[in-house]
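User: I want to check something. If I give you two sequences, will you return the structure for each one separately, not as a complex?

Assistant: Yes, each is folded on its own. Here is the first sequence with its structure:
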Amino acid sequence: MSRLHLTFPCEGATLIGTLDTAESTSGLLLVSGGNELRSGAWSGQALLAERIAAAGFPVFRFDPRGVGDSEGANGGFATRAPDIAAALAAFRHAAPQLSRVVGLGNCDAASGLMLAGGAGLDALALSNPWTIESDDAPPPPEALRDHYRRRLADPAAIARLLTGKVSPGRLLVSLRDALRRPAPPGTLAQDMAKGITGFAGPVRFLVAERDRTAQAFLTAWDRNDPRIRRCPDATHSYVEPAAQAWLARQVLEMLRGG
């Protein structure tokens, strides 16, 4: 295995990608979300790429337009279809043995893959898809209920409540919000669902159960969807060692055709 850095074009801009080489005919395309660099939060994508390549599968990750080392304007996740298509073409050119490519995106990168209809990939691993319509939207009831389940299991939190260190007014408002009915799916979630309606390849939704973005997704989606896989006690970027191992297993299963 070796790690190579290369450039490729996308609508007049030059983008930067990193290839971890391996011999398999199945490969992984990592799509970054938001303003995240191709290395990922806490170098999580770089570490995952190294792990997957060591198992025999090539991995390509890249900075989309306007992010990191790449040129151009960052139009956000809803405009990433050309970036993903250009990265996929560069990946196939750099690893010509490829016959199958799995796309993995976390947060709004997963949303971008869905809005792009799968972006020409053969399979999709969609982690904690972003379905929140606005930054000032309240936390979903499921997130608040999870918060209180964890607080009730924490002796220090119980002590704070019993000694009056928690505002009763704020607590009552938060409990009321936790008991409210979930809002109906918004336009974004509906557009994402439409985006992958015609996608013919395998799809997995990877859910970190301690992540509010994932909890909001479950509120907006059919939580009984058989394609959902849950990772208990994982946070958004899978920084926990057990969560990192779980994520790698999910990806390797898809690369092996599972």
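And separately, the second sequence with its own structure:
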Amino acid sequence: MTPFPREDYSPLRPYDPGRSPIALDLSDNTNLWGAHPAALEMVRMAPPEALTRYPPVYGSDLKDAVAAKYGIPVENVATGCGSDDLLDSVFRASTIPPGRMSFPAPSYSMVTLFARMNGLETLPVPWRMAEVDPARLLLEEPDLVYVCRPNNPTGTSLERDWIRGLLALGGPEGPIVILDEAYADFGEDTFLVEASSSDRLLVLRTFSILYGLAGIRIGFAVGSKTIVEEVEKSRGPYKVSHVAERAAVAALEDNSGWADRVRTETLENRERLSKELWSRGLHPLPSQANFLLVPVEPASAAEVNRALQDHGVAGRPFPRLPDVGDALRITIGPWTLMERFLRALDQLFETEPTRSA
């Protein structure tokens, strides 16, 4: 008899982000300005058949919108129920278990879970070592390499030449590189165009963050036609709902400047909050994402977060991060929300409230 569940599933546990209702939740990196207005209006206007009929099999309208916006052939675009869906799909399509996946660590927590769900052994390489020499990610001959750029949870990013160097190291027969660009809207550049002409690079993007559509789960990927076809076979049909696709297309095609204003304000508030934290003796890591990672040692990140929750504010605690230690991740939002966080922090450490610059 075939055992159920699979033996390698026994160490896995259902995902638990550790959130609970709170007045100000700064824990999950979503858009604290709200959903894109054009997307929200499209959801409100959705016709009955958007609910009663199956959606297009593979999100064709969104593929067209992505191709038009980024100058990419439409056959190089895949869509999914969030970028997580696409990550899960490329893992499933890539190798017969047991396979191997390397990545710079620390990184996005779900990547190891999706890898193990799909029978992949995970090969973490300390971030500081991988940053110096990308060849370290290939030492154990992985089938796949995953890189988050900008990285979650640190906010740091790898240079463009680093990515190109990694791809060059493997040669034509090297492993596929999955480049997770969930936070690229707040960084310096993107590899979307390069991925469309590469046989070894797949770039993942999401509408959860800049566009504020985390609740309807929508994302896309760009890669060679061959990679995209295999990802879509693995993903299966009807994963992108009518409503989600209509909202994403409306946000992508909108020319009101809303997304640009949110991006600009995020970058300004990220720098402003960083300075405020430094003035309080805290040293957040340099970030190219919409959050800051704030080391709190020798304190416990979980205890600091629980204390902040007593003041109505929550971040995301990360205990014992390699090369960082205990740290708290704080999502950037409108400055009024950042001021509330700073007031809670001042109360927590029993300091006099500092007037914001």
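Because they were folded independently, the notes below concern the second chain alone. The chain has 13 helices and twelve strands. The radius of gyration is 21 Å.
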